[in-house]
């Protein structure tokens, strides 16, 4: 029991350390969505290889041609397999969005890429992501990589991040908030949502 506890918390501690480090580096342009995701995955893989608590399922592909293969063009950046305390297996999909500073409106952590279209001309990514989740029965989330920006008018929202970068909200809520007009969301749109959780707290509740 003690050994398993140490292994579980080592995964969480690694992510907490990364989250605090990244909070100051994202605004400097040193980490983008893909590189932050790679960092998270490398920490998970490194720390949980023997613990078998959190695993990254690379059999699912974010991109590719849409066909009968349910694992192709999922529009999910990554899918985690989480083994809970009762030994039950859960699959969770995550689409990652990086918070950026909007210099025009002085907004910190605006998710400009959330309205991304596949191939820049095709379906909205969120629609394809939503479709994949419904067909596969996998629970979906957005994970937002937020940074610490100066001279912004939504500093109160930024302060609610408590100096940690990775925050999670479920895909259904995000889709509802974007609406049929595919609204570009910012931190102000999600920070007060009840289900808006810091990523490591989210993982602790699911382990």
Short key terms for the protein model shown above:
19% strand, globular, alpha+beta, disordered N terminus, 6-stranded mixed β-sheet, 7 helices, 207 residues
Number of helices: 7
Shape: globular
Percent helix: 25-40%
Task: Give me the Rg, rounded.
Answer: 17 Å
Q: What amount of the residues lies in strands?
A: 15-25%
Structural class: alpha+beta
DSSP strand tally: 8
Sketch the topology as an H/E string, one letter per element: HHEEEEEHEHEHHEH
* Terminal CA distance: 14 Å
Mean pLDDT: 84
Strand order of the largest sheet: 1-2-3-6-7-8
The description of the largest β-sheet is: 6 strands, mixed
What can you see in these coordinates?
The protein is α+β, with helices and mostly antiparallel strands and 207 residues long. Helix content is 37%, strand content 19%. The protein has helices at residues 2-25, 33-48, 125-136, 155-159, 171-178, 187-190, 199-206; strands at residues 54-56, 78-83, 89-98, 100-102, 107-110, 139-145, 166-170, 197-198. It has a six-stranded mixed β-sheet with strand order 1-2-3-6-7-8, sandwiched between helices. A two-stranded antiparallel ribbon has the order 4-5. The model is unreliable at 1-8 (pLDDT under 50).
């Amino acid at each position: 029991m003690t050994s398993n506890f140490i292994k579980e918390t080592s995964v969480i501690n690694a992510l907490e350390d990364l989250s605090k480090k990244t909070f100051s580096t994202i605004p400097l342009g040193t980490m983008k969505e893909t590189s932050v995701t790679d960092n998270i995955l490398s920490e998970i893989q490194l720390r949980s290889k023997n613990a078998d608590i959190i695993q990254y399922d690379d059999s699912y592909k974010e991109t590719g041609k849409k066909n009968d293969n349910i694992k192709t063009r999922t529009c999910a950046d990554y899918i985690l397999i989480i083994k809970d305390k009762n030994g039950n297996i859960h699959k969770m999909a995550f689409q990652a969005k990086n918070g950026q500073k909007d210099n025009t409106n002085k907004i910190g952590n605006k998710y400009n890429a959330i309205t991304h279209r596949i191939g820049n001309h095709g379906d909205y990514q969120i629609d394809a992501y939503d479709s994949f989740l419904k067909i596969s029965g996998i629970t979906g989330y957005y994970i937002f990589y937020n940074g610490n920006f100066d001279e912004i008018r939504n500093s109160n929202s930024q302060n609610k991040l408590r100096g940690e970068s990775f925050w999670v909200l479920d895909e259904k809520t995000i889709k509802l908030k974007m609406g049929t007009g595919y609204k570009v969301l910012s931190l102000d749109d999600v920070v007060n949502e009840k289900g808006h959780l810091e990523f490591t707290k989210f993982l602790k509740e699911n382990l």
